[in-house]
Amino acid sequence: MDEYQQTIRALSDRIVVAQTPIRVLDAVKWDDNIRQAFINGKGKEPPAVDRAYYQSRPLGFDSSALKAEFQSIERDITRQLGQFNPVGQIMRRMCREYRMVVRMLEARGTEDFGLISQELYGAASDAFHAGDPTLADLGLMLSDYLNNIDGRGDLKDEPKNLTAKQAVDILQRRLNTVFGEAEGTIRVFESDGIVADAAAGADYIKVRADAMFNSRDVRALEVHEGLVHVGTTLNGLNQPICTFLAKGPPSSTVTQEGLAILMEVIAFASYPSRLRKLTNRTRAIHMVEQGADFMQVYEFFRGQGFEIGQSYSNASRVFRGSVPNGLPFTKDLSYLKGFIMVYNYIQLAVKKGKLEQIPLLFCGKTTLEDMRTLRQLVEEGLVEPPKYLPEQFRDLNALSAWMCFSNFLNHLSLDRIEADYANIL
């Protein structure tokens, strides 16, 4: 490693160390006693969460000192690499994002929390491009499509007859074939301490101990949490110089969640009720941006057919870090927003013949705006190409063919097609 590479590695390592104590989801979650009190009250009163609630739950780090540390790292990046160095620009942006994350967590329970969340993750009212529909429009459109197929008996969800232990065993066996059993690269285990059905860490997937699954759920977890989230983390940890690629600031969350949803689709691991879950999250966030409170969002989910406990869980995701009549935590927009952005990126990469850039999405916790720079860094030997790649991205033949057709189909008018096909459909 030459002096230039050592400088980058040292600065990168400082970012990795500095961000270690930041645990966004732990800092914003509502405790089980809040949930239990709501359920015991039959869902009649909003959860008792206010600014004081969060103040009673310390962040676990000195926020002022941490912001100062990221500021210091950012200054040193400019001092040692210059203002226009490509890898330096990525690292400086990460420092700024992490400072903003700390500010957001400091503001838990206030309006600023929601405003900073929108800066980091976006808002449902954001357009994808000038003149294009918004995320809220996408959510409503998908809901309409899903409503049209809801009544079909052949698309009903399979019964959830797999316990967490059975799901763990299946996932461990399948992922061993991808990541290597002998190396013990990835662990799958049960956990009591998570809100979601499953969550991925650096080299593990934890499954909620009391959750039940069906075979489709397990396949989706294999693809989403395993092949994408754990895969990109391991590829980031495999970086000898740009170690920051193992860690994901909010801008990478959008790209990574979008990549995971895209993988579900192209691996045929997605299904209507899964899409409904993502769509409902987007719609709920938009409702809150329009002034809805917790109880209104809770009733929205009740109207979707969810029981009290699940409706509470779904609504509380939107208000994590906030208060029951506050602004939303918009991280859950990352799924649909990221899917559209990553899909468009791959589509354009195929159109322009830049296929070599597509697998680089997996070289760590990447962000779309950095992809051209990452290709340059790979060519310079500063970034390693991804070691772990899903089959669909190892061989780009099928994906390229699909995107070629997709590029053409984008030019057709669906309204005109619907009119022309009226007599045959």
Please tell me about this protein's structure.
This protein is mainly α and 425 residues long. The chain has one domain. The protein has helices at residues 3-19, 24-28, 32-40, 51-55, 63-81, 86-106, 111-121, 135-150, 164-179, 215-237, 250-266, 272-289, 294-303, 308-319, 334-351, 371-380, 391-394, 397-409, 414-420; strands at 187-191, 198-200, 204-208. It has a three-stranded mixed sheet, with helices on one face. A hairpin with a 3-residue loop joins β2 (198-200) and β3. α1 (3-19) packs antiparallel against α5 (63-81) and α5 (63-81) packs antiparallel against α6. The chain starts with a helix and ends in a 5-residue tail after the last helix.
